[in-house]
Amino acid sequence: MPALPPPADNPKLAAPEKNSPTFSPDRISVIYVLGGPGAGKGTQCANLVRDYGFKHLSAGDLLRAEQDRPDSQFGNMIKEYIADGKIVPMEVTVQLLENAMTEEIYDKQRQGMDSRFLIDGFPRKMDQALKFEESVCPSKFTLFFDCPEDVMQERLINRGKTSGRADDNAESIKKRFRTFVETSMPVVDYFEKEGKVVKVNAAHGPDEIYEEVKKRLAERGFEMTK
Predict the structure, then answer these.
(1) 28 within 8 A of 21, measured Cβ to Cβ
(2) Positions of the chain with pLDDT under 50
(3) Cβ pair 156, 169 in contact under 8 A
(4) CA dist 138 to 10, 27, 51, 109, Å?
(5) What distance lies between CA 114 and its chain's CA centroid?
(6) SS (H, E, C) the chain
């Protein structure tokens, strides 16, 4: 498996060392969206994009797009990590997110508008969280969809019948559950101690979940834009 090269050898993806974040939280709102695989993050993010003007960035989607990009030097590595249910090296994920944010921010600035981002499925490890906060933009809070494992597994098995995703199978699902508990829950616990976690019960139907999401966002000062 190829190792991630140092920044000097990887100008497309590796970020330069910084003394401060690229973007200011005064103009940029970043909300992390976390929850186990199958917790319904994508469905709720679509609702928030529609009603609140967020830009939805899925770390998983960005990685899958990068692995399929013909000239990507990391395509095979990303594919192996995803198939094994492992977390892709931090430098790749953080830089892909920053690249995507930069495009959106420039577009919004030309319109005289602030930018709102939902970053779905990120950060999945503490090093990702700390790196992003320090070098890209501090988050407002983490939106955590709390869902029992048996409910998530049933959703994923059903999704796998039509999704075509390589990781929507029983073996990969078990690995993804284990990875989430071992590596992502410490991130949720860390931000919760800082008062930066909004926890939502995700065992209900999507409409009921969204009603709770809207209520919790209003408590944090976010209003609908549509």
Answers:
(1) no
(2) 1-12, 14-15
(3) no
(4) 25, 11, 23, 19
(5) 20
(6) CCCCCCHHHCCCCCCCCCCCCCCCCCCEEEEEEEECCCCCHHHHHHHHHHHHCCEEEEHHHHHHHHHHCCCCCCHHHHHHHHHCCCCCCHHHHHHHHHHHHHHHHHHHHHCCCCEEEEEECECCCHHHHHHHHHHCCCCCEEEEEECCHHHHHHHHHHHHHHHCCCCCCHHHHHHHHHHHHHHHHHHHHHHHHCCCEEEEECCCCHHHHHHHHHHHHHHCCCCCCC
SS3 labels along 140-200: CEEEEEECCHHHHHHHHHHHHHHHCCCCCCHHHHHHHHHHHHHHHHHHHHHHHHCCCEEEE
Neighbours of 145 (CB within 10 A): 23
Give the distance, in angstroms, between the CA of residue 74 and the centroid of all CA atoms in the same chain: 19
Query: 165-224, pLDDT tens digit by residue?
Result: 766 677 788 888 888 889 899 999 999 999 999 999 999 999 999 999 999 999 999 999
Torsion of CA 46, 125, 17, 136, to 10 degrees: 30
Q: Taking all residues of the chain, what is their mean pLDDT, rounded to a whole number?
A: 87
23 near 135, Cβ under 8 Å? no
